[in-house]
Specification:
Layout: E1 2-7, H1 13-21, E2 25-30, E3 35-37, E4 42-44, H2 47-54, E5 59-60, H3 70-80, E6 84-88, H4 96-99, E7 106-110, H5 122-128, E8 133-140, E9 150-157, H6 164-188, H7 220-229, E10 236-240, E11 243-247, E12 251-253, E13 264-266, E14 271-273, E15 279-281, E16 284-287, E17 293-294, H8 295-302
Parallel strand pairs: 1-2, 1-6, 2-5, 6-7
Antiparallel strand pairs: 3-4, 7-8, 8-9, 10-11, 11-16, 12-15, 13-14, 14-15, 16-17
Keywords: Protein biosynthesis, Transferase
Pfam families: Formyl_trans_C, Formyl_trans_N
Family: Belongs to the Fmt family.
């Protein structure tokens, strides 16, 4: 089939690369525009743009699919005569007038078991909520948010040490053959889309930096899940002596219950922090202006005083917090 691909980040690459290597013809690629990164603020293409251009594909990077650019995008998509569009983490809403241009519509690889976790951050929200199983779905885009019929799905266990980055990488790899299987069944007419049950839907709104702020009054398990859920982005953080202090995944220590929330206990070999339950062991930390380092190495240099604490009690307005 003639395939239009829409995607932007690293998580979209396994599917794009699988399509390029398949019997299908990738006739065009939509992705986000080049972005400025690094200290020099130089322009860098999205991961999808870089791979697609190397493959000699027709790449377009409209700032929006609506407004003044809509006519140009619509004309280009129509001229491609794609049989189907495949979407993986594109990052832009597809307007209604484009949804029916390809004969078989726009099929989106979404990293959850829909109707669970509709929205921009399904993997992160699943980890934060303590889910034990998630997965990926291929569904047809329609006007609603991730509401379309599901063409195929797979499941994936969430381990107790998975970060959202770990889980997303596995789902991205597993999702590529799922997409190819769905396209095969669409092409031969054997696919049987299943409608979603809206009554079972949960939402996964985009995360902000505020979602990574750790409240040490929370239970250790909730803190553990939150840090893993926001790793690598937007990242977990607290404060130390008034400055931002970034945190990597932690390890709950059930036998230590005598530390107050946020209170530090540093030894030569470990750094513990009190929570609303048992303590947690810090693993990797990044003090303000510093690179990542083992927590015990930081403590040997910083020499926190007895009774020193991390963080404050700033409230976090987050509906997902109340589900933990």
């Amino acid at each position: 089939m003639r395939v239009l691909f829409a995607g932007t980040p690293e998580a979209a690459l396994p599917t794009l690369e699988a399509l390029i290597a398949s019997e299908h013809d990738v006739v065009g690629v939509l992705t986000r525009a080049d972005a400025r990164k690094g200290r020099g603020r130089t322009l860098h293409p999205s991961p999808v743009a870089a791979v697609a251009r190397d493959a000699g594909l027709d790449v377009r990077t409209p700032a929006t699919l609506k407004g003044e650019q809509a006519d140009d995008v619509h004309a280009w998509v129509s001229a491609l005569k794609a049989d189907v569009a495949v979407v993986v983490a594109y990052g832009r809403l597809v307007p209604t007038d484009l949804l029916d241009v390809p004969e078989h519509g726009w099929l989106n690889l979404h990293f959850s078991l829909l109707p669970a976790w509709r929205g921009a951050a399904p993997v992160q929200r699943a980890v934060i909520a303590g889910e034990e199983v998630t997965g990926a779905c291929v569904f047809r885009l329609e006007e609603g948010l991730d509401t379309g019929p599901v063409y195929g799905r797979l499941t994936e266990a969430i381990s107790g040490r998975d970060t959202s980055g770990d889980l997303l990488e596995r789902l991205a790899q597993a999702g590529a053959p799922l997409v190819l299987d769905v396209l095969r069944r669409v092409e031969d007419g054997s696919v049987h889309p299943e409608p979603q049950d809206d009554a079972l839907a949960t939402l996964a709104p985009m995360l902000s930096s505020a979602d990574g702020l750790i409240r040490w009054e929370d239970p250790a398990l909730a803190i553990d899940r939150r840090i893993r859920g926001v790793t690598p982005a937007p990242g977990a953080h607290t404060t130390y002596q008034g400055s931002r202090f970034r945190l990597g995944p932690v390890t709950p220590v059930p036998e230590v219950t005598d530390l107050l929330p946020g209170q530090l206990r540093a030894t030569k070999h470990e750094v513990l922090v009190g929570t609303g339950g048992c303590a947690v062991r810090l693993e990797q930390v990044a003090p303000a202006g510093r690179s990542w380092m083992p927590a015990d190495a930081w403590a040997r240099g910083a020499r926190p005083e007895v009774g020193a604490v991390l963080g404050d009690s700033s409230p976090r307005n987050n509906d997902a917090e109340r589900t933990i």
